[in-house]
């Protein structure tokens, strides 16, 4: 009997880290493999995603919302183990509050945290930390974070936190930081890091691709100070935002940033032996296809040469008189005469029209396809490592992921 109890305790992780690549359907991890491939070698090298793959998950929301989920319903499923309607933040279809993973962990004496590249009160982190009838209630969600007692809250979102609200956080013992450079000064929990007005900068505009990995590293450092253990959510939020814009160059750079964060956690899991990491996506965004237009080809080298996000290239092109050389330089290829004519027309219509024209041009040169600017209903991959990782093998539903994690939480802490 004692031996059996010992086996259970050995297989039960002390720390649990759930990482969500928002919108990161299977085509994103396949595309990322080719994006990172070394063309000098015969083989296509594995990525962190290939190393850690264990299963797949379905993502559909509650029946009332059909088969295609949004981030709020998906995060509610992953956080609570219950399906809900699109837009729900950890409430059920009757709008009753559902206990979240981080709430359960906190009640057991574990430390909790979120580190994301969107605003900290966006759908995914919100569904792990608190409750709301609508993901759009950004101000209310920010205010509700006061009651979560979370030890680490790192990401963007300054505009949603009034001075009065920040004062309430500091009165509760939170250190408040607004710059990445201030991370080093934080050596103990609790911390509220609002490091951008809304989202963190796009990775493609802000090399190296290490902002989310720095937030992840700091979260691990702070949360592991609790001898009882911790539960951490990390989200590569902006993969989804780039997918909604059908912006392949920006999406692949965001994948790189998320992959670096996974590698930070993978290293932590290797060293600690008592930590479980689960990586998944909440849904697939954009209907990305690696190859398009009847042509059997995809050209990631085109994406590697793009130096800035299309919206930044557009802004620079609109601000300059002699804009064509700027566009050629930042795209990494020279558009043809007819393509420049299309860009000229788009430039006269403003930043958004110009950015869309540039994204479409990058799609043509890389042979990338998209089916929608929304989400699709396909299954997503599940990756895992550490004690309990085998539980996540094969096919499962997103609520199964939550319920498996719940089964691994300590029954009580000493």
UniProtKB/TrEMBL annotation:
EC number(s) from the headed UniProt entry: 3.1.3.1
Keywords, comma-separated and alphabetical: Hydrolase, Magnesium, Metal-binding, Phosphoprotein, Zinc
Could you name the domain of life of the organism this protein comes from?
A: Bacteria
Name the Gene Ontology molecular function terms of this record: alkaline phosphatase activity
Q: Which InterPro entries match?
A: Alkaline_phosphatase (IPR001952), Alkaline_phosphatase_AS (IPR018299), Alkaline_phosphatase_core_sf (IPR017850)
Top EC class for this record: hydrolase
SMART domains, per this entry? alkPPc
Which cofactors must be present for this protein to function? Mg(2+); Zn(2+)
Report the sequence similarity comment from the record: Belongs to the alkaline phosphatase family.
* Record-given protein name: Alkaline phosphatase
Q: What organism does the record attribute this protein to?
A: Shewanella aestuarii
């Amino acid at each position: 009997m004692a031996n059996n109890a010992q086996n259970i305790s050995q297989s039960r992780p002390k720390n649990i880290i759930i990482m969500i690549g928002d919108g990161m359907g299977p085509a994103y991890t396949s595309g990322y493999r080719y994006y990172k491939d070394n063309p000098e070698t015969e083989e296509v090298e594995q990525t962190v995603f290939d190393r850690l793959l264990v299963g797949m998950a379905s993502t559909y929301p509650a029946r009332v919302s059909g088969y295609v989920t949004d981030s709020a319903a998906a995060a509610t499923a992953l956080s609570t183990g219950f399906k809900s309607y699109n837009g729900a933040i950890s409430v059920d279809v009757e709008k009753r509050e559902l206990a979240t993973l981080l709430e359960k962990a906190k009640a057991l004496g574990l430390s909790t945290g979120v580190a994301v590249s969107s605003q900290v009160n966006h759908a995914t982190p919100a569904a792990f930390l608190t409750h709301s009838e609508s993901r759009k209630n950004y101000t209310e969600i920010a205010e509700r974070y006061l009651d979560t007692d979370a030890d680490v809250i790192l990401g963007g979102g300054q505009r949603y936190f009034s001075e009065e609200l920040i004062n309430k956080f500091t009165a509760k013992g939170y250190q408040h930081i607004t710059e990445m450079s201030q991370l080093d000064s934080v050596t103990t929990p609790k911390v509220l890091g609002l490091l951008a007005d809304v989202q963190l900068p796009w990775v493609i505009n802000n090399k190296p691709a290490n902002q989310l990995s720095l937030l992840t590293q700091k979260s691990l450092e702070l949360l592991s100070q609790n001898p009882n253990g911790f539960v951490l959510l990390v989200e590569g939020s902006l993969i989804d935002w780039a997918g909604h814009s059908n912006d392949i160059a920006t999406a692949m750079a965001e994948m790189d940033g998320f992959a670096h964060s996974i590698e930070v956690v993978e290293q932590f899991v290797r060293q600690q032996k008592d930590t479980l990491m689960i990586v998944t996506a909440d849904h697939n965004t954009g209907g990305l296809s690696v190859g398009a237009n009847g042509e059997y080809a995809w050209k990631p080298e085109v994406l590697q040469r793009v130096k800035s996000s299309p919206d930044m290239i557009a802004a620079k092109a609109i601000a300059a008189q002699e804009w064509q050389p700027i566009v050629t330089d930042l795209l990494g290829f020279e558009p043809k005469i007819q393509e420049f004519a299309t860009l000229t027309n788009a430039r006269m219509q403003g930043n958004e029209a110009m950015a869309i024209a540039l994204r479409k041009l990058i799609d043509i040169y890389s042979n990338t396809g998209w089916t929608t600017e929304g989400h699709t209903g396909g299954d997503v991959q599940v990756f895992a490592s550490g004690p309990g990782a085998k539980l996540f093998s094969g096919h499962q539903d997103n609520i199964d992921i939550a319920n498996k994690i719940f089964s691994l939480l300590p029954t009580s802490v000493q």
